[in-house]
Amino acid sequence: MEKALVLKDITKRFPLVLANDRISLDLYWGEVLALVGENGAGKSTLMKIVYGLQPPDRGEMWVDGRPYRPKSPMDAIRAGIGMVHQHFMLVEPFTVLENLVLGLEPGSPLHLDLDAARRKAQALMDRLGFQVPLDERVENLPVGVQQRVEILKALYREARILILDEPTAVLTPQEAEELFRFLRAYVAQGNAAIFISHKLKEVLEVSDRITVIRDGRVVGTVPKEGTTLEALARMMVGREVVLRVEKAPARPGETVLEVEGLAAPPRLKGVSFRVRAGEIVGVAGVEGNGQTELVEALAGLRPHQGVVRFLGQPLPPSARKVRALGVSHIPEDRLARGLVLDFSVKENAILGDQQERPFRGFLGFLDDGAMEAHARRLVESFDVRPRSTALSARRFSGGNQQKIVVGRELLRGPKLLIAAQPTRGVDVGAIEFIHRALVEARDRGLAVLLVSADLNEILALSDRILVMYEGRVVGEVAPEEATEARLGLLMAGVTP
Ligand SMILES: Nc1ncnc2c1ncn2[C@@H]1O[C@H](COP(=O)(O)OP(=O)(O)OP(=O)(O)O)[C@@H](O)[C@H]1O
Ligand SMILES: [Mg+2]
Description:
The chain has 496 residues and is of the alpha/beta class. It is 33% helix and 24% strand. Keywords: ATP-binding, Cell membrane, Membrane, Nucleotide-binding, Repeat, Translocase, Transport.
C-alpha cells in the first residue's frame, strides 16, 4: 500500500515539556490510524504540526511521497490535508455555506460564488451520505451537526487526509456511529484518516491500526485485530488500569438537594427529585433534553421556575451565593465556564472563591501564599501535568484543563457537587482517578448529581439513575437493574 503521510523524527519542545520526542509514523491510503495516549502525551501538538499550525523544532514529513513543510494551514489544505479540531473553529454567526467558503478565497469575500459553492457542497453531502442545513447559522446547530460542518469544510477543500482530534467527545452515541460509518466510507474511497480519541472502545471499532504515544514518544503501533481494551489502556498509561469502579453500596444521609417542578427555558419542562448526602444520583439522557438547563438552574446560572431547596432552605438565585453555601459545579464546557484561559493555574484554582477565606487576606487583598499552597495541592493531588501553578490554563492539554476544574471543585469541600460531563476529554488513567475521587467524596458524605452523556460513566458511578427525555424525568432505575438496553429505551422516550 502507498503511504499517504510519513512523519520522521518530529520533535517539538515547549518551555516545560518535550511535547514530541522524535516521533515517526506512517499513514497509508485506505486506512484509519488512531492516535491514543494520556492527556498531555503530545497528540494535538503533533497534529497541529502536520496541519501547519506550528513548526516542528526538528523532523521531516512527506505527503504522498513528496517532501512536505507547511508554513500555515493553507499549505496543509493545498497538500490535501484537513483537520477537525478538539475545539471547534467555526464562525458562529455565519451560515454553514459561508463557513464552507470562508478563508478559501483570500481577500475576495465579495466575489464568492455561493451558488457554485452550494452545488459543490450538495454533491459532496450526497456522495458521503450525510446532510447539514446549508443556510442555517452555525450557532443554531447542535454540536453533532456543527461537527459535520467541520468535516464538510475539510472535504469541500478536497482533503484526502482527514485529521480528527477527539471528534466524538461531544457526540451522542448515535452521532458517533454516524461519524464512524462516514469515516469507513471515506477511507474505502482511497482516502486516509487519523483519529484521536480517549474512548478506547471507539478506537477499536473504527481504526485499522493504533499508534500509542506516551510522554511525547511513540510506544508502539498495533493492528486492531487481537488488541484488547485492557492491553491498549496498559500501553497508554504504562500500568494496569482498572476500567471498572470499585465501590461499596451508598449509605445516604440527610436530603441535601430537593427539586420540585423545576423548569427552565428552553428545554427543561419540570423535574422533581432529591439527592441525599452520600449518594451519587446519575442523570442519563441524550444531550439536549434539558440537562444543560437543569445544571445551570441549580448552579444559579439560569432563571427558572419551581422549587429548589438546599439543606432545607430555598437556593438563592445567584451563582456566587449558591457557591458560597457549599455547592460545587463542574460545567460541561470547561472553556466557556470552567476556566479563564489566560489566568494561571494559581488563579484558576480559586476562581469563584476569591472572596472567601483563606484566599481573601488582610484588607481584602488576595493572599498569595494561600493561593500558591492551594494550587500546589491541586496540581499534586489531581496529577495535573506539567505540575506548574504559574502556567496559564491555555498551555495545558485538554484533559489536564479538565483535571484543574475537577480538582478545584472537589478540593473546596462542597456539600453538593453538580458534575456535568466530568471526564469529557480525559484519558483512561485520569478517568479512573476522577471516578475514584468522586466515590471517595461520596463516602465522606458528599451529595453528587452526575449528568453525563456517557452511559458507561452513569452506570459505573450512580447509586440511582434518573433518565431525562424532552425536559422531564421519564424514569428512575436502580443501577443493578440498569442495562444499556433498558436505559437506551427510556432515553429514546419509550416508557413501559
Ligand atoms: N502553547 C504551548 N505552550 C506550552 N506548552 C504547551 C503548549 N501547547 C501544548 N503544550 C504542552 O505540550 C504537552 C502536549 O500537549 P498536547 O495538547 O499535544 O497533548 P494531548 O496529547 O493532545 O493531550 P489531551 O489528550 O489532553 O488533549 C502538554 O504537556 C502541554 O501542556
Ligand atoms: Mg489534545
